[in-house]
Amino acid sequence: MIGAIGFTFPAVLAALALLPLIWWLLRLIPPRPQTELFPPLRILARLVKKEETPAKSPWWLTALRLGLTALVILALARPILNPQSELASGDGPLLILIDNDWSAAPDWDDRVRTAQALIAQAGDQGRPVALAPTVAGPAATVQLTDAGAAADMLGAIEPIAGRADRDATLARLLAATETADAPPVLAMIDTGLAEPDGEALNDRLAGAGLDGLLRFSATDRDLVAITAADNRTDGFALSLARTPAAAETASVALYDSRERLLGRGETTFEAGAAETIITFDIPFELRNDIATARIDGAPHAGAAFLLDENNRRRRVALLTGLAGDEAQPLLSPLFYISRALAPFADLIEPRTGDLSVDVPEMIDQGPAMIVMADIGVLPAAAADRIDEWLAAGGTLVRFAGPRLAASAQDDPYLPVTLRAGERALGGALSWSEPQAVAAFAAESPFAGLEAPRDVTVTRQILAQPDADLADRTWASLADGTPLVTGVRRGEGAIVLFHVTAEATWSNLPISGTFVDMLRRITDFARNTEPGQAPVTAAAESTAALPPLRILRADGTLAIPPAHVRPLDAEADARPGFENPAGLYGTPEGFVARNVLARDETLTAFAPAPPGLDVAEQSLVAEDEADLSGWLFLAAFVLLIADTLAVLWINGRLSFGTAPRRRAPASAAIALAAGLVVIFGAGTSRADDTRPGDDLILDALETTRIAYVLTGDRTVDETTRAGIDGLTRFLASRTAFEPGAPVGLDIEADELAFYPLIYFPMSAQGDMPSETAVARLDAYMQNGGTILFDTRDQLTGSFTDGATPETERLRDILGGLNVPPLEPVPPDHVLTKAFYILDNFPGRYAGSPLWVEASALDDGRADRPVRTGDGVTPIMITGNDLAAAWALDDAGRPLHAIATGDPLQRIYAFRSGVNIMMYMLTGNYKADQVHIPALLERLGQ
């Protein structure tokens, strides 16, 4: 390597040593003598002048030819600009683990270049390659392939707003090398950020039997991310985390759902600090409009924080066991509470006074906090809902009173165990004086508030002294007895004021400190899901939330791609391939899913597997560039210049006014070619067409139905005739005129050109390879649909798996990310896409047509079409559709219908039409504009 230039064949440079010899030879060879005509008078006239023919070539011509020779030698040595040294040594397979999580977005191009360089060098060495991203679906498979296939797979990988799972990815890579002859070499192209699976990853690396471990990572990563948002009573706060190399200042902007700017602020990290909090002083009326917070100039998903109902203005439900006198509102148990909470919370009041009715109704509205003033015993129906609500994150605040004091021993919704009865302070029969409020402890949620000097307590309920009392005491009186206690319960909390909510036991409710204390409690309360009960084991099947908007790795919102699944109770808490960061639900109510958890820090990733050294390298910042083409071009230009010079010396080319012989046509052609090369090089464009481009253009211009070539000649001929018959039927009955059907080799042919691929099952055909199955899976994930036909309705079905064809289908589906399936329901768009159908027969009629189960099923009887169902990526039938569609050149059927009913073939063709219309228009027929026509056709 010489500086930033290397040579692929450096031995060729030894030819440069021959340049002195070439110079010597060129000096000895004179130019060709000038030819003259034989006019005697001209010869005699010239005898007077003395002219000599030079014995040596001119020095400038010699230098030009030496330069030309040197350029050719350098070009043959194939110089490379920014050459990459050998990145991975060894003879075994090369395993490439590449992080494609949220933090990979800023330098994704460098990661791709690094992987490309590794794959290219492995290809030159003839080593197999296995490539796997760390954010992938649960059914993702990894296999050893050649460099070309690995490069194609690399092109399909993109960063996702999820969290990396390096341990699971490494397990897939190692599984692909179980049959390898030599130990593999692992190359990790990581983001430099640690993940929770660090210990498991080190253990797996230590026992993997690797021949080497290479780590390619960017050093000194400059990342700042948002980890939490809090709609506090005193402002809107964001928690930020950074890497050690990040800047100390960060600018954050707040936007509403229409991307309108609501506020902007700047914060500074303390020296060496990894976290900070920025607070925005925004009016209450605008806080609920905040939809997104973004760090300026940070193109990654960690710099965008999405907000949902949990970040909105808190909803607080108020309950009491004692009704106040409307004529004396100051004696109402909830008067002071409602006055204190009303400025910064939405209050929910009971409707009937029956706790068994009011508590469930209030919980259905998704409150962040429920305040109970002197409520003793809760009905069973209310208690069950309170348990679920607390587990989902609700905060229960209770105030003491006579009823609570009477039933405190058996109450499960208290933070501490209470003594029976009340404690009176300062009465005629008491030796003690009314007690003041002690200073709030540093670890209390009320820390920082000033203890009120004018507040005294004359009555309270006492807690049993035990080991947990001190930890659960949030505020106490001057004598050390608790005033406020609290404890976490599930995801929520229970808080108890040991005095009443009105000013009978204490004057605390009429003080400003009371308002501040309730604000502090409201700050850490979170709204629960409105309109739904918390997810339980019995209800988890109905708790799935469809993806609404997905956060890209660069921090922008986008329409959810095909691989994103509904969010349910079993979803991983960390965003991943199937549930990346984004919004899940409907526009009326959704849940925000962000890449980082609350209070998470950005720590460095430092793999240290026991007994294995880690070789660290930087990412490849620039692509290699082959300079040999440019050198050959320069040599050709010098060759043109040399030719013109020789013509001029020999008198074949004149630039003066003296009469000379005109240069021959060859000289003119050479001159024209030279001018084209010299002056046209800057504007010319290389012809980058490749063999097969005409087929690609034809596939793009004409929509065709494709089918898979199984290797079974009989099945393939029937399928070809069937797809051709359906094509003719579509052209005669609809405005859609598809091109001739195409048979596909799914391992080699491009699948993306075809909206539908018909895949007949044949036990005698070839089993698709893992590569072919992986390409089918990528086709489905990118929006294509495969229609699998087992053709075995008379002997089995898809569900019982009794036939070889069905077993073959099960083997293929084992390598695909298959969504939940269901037979086509009566209200599915497929049944009304063109014809009104209630079944989808082929040569047989007994098998249902299986499609992806719809995540949304409102079941409304007033709609003849299900809403929200998209295009299914998979269809499965056993009715042998192609055999029913198959026609000869004269339009006669090639196969008889099993039932003998001629109408069945007509319905088979109509089924094919509906399938194709559905593929081309999606849920278009579910639009409201079609409802009157559909109802009329259905006779409703």
From TrEMBL:
Q: Which UniProt keywords apply?
A: Membrane, Transmembrane, Transmembrane helix
Pfam families from the UniProt entry: BatA, DUF4159
What InterPro entries does its record include? Aerotolerance_reg_N, Class_I_gatase-like, Double_TM_dom, DUF4159
Does the entry feature the keyword Ribosomal protein, yes or no? no
The record ties this protein, via Gene3D superfamilies, to: 3.40.50.880, Domain of unknown function DUF4159
Q: Which residues cross the membrane?
A: 6-26, 627-651, 663-682
Transmembrane found in the keyword field: yes
Where is each DUF4159 domain found? 704-920
Give all residue intervals belonging to the Aerotolerance regulator N-terminal domain: 5-79
NCBIfam families found in the cross-reference section: two_anch (TIGR02226)
This chain belongs to the protein called DUF4159 domain-containing protein
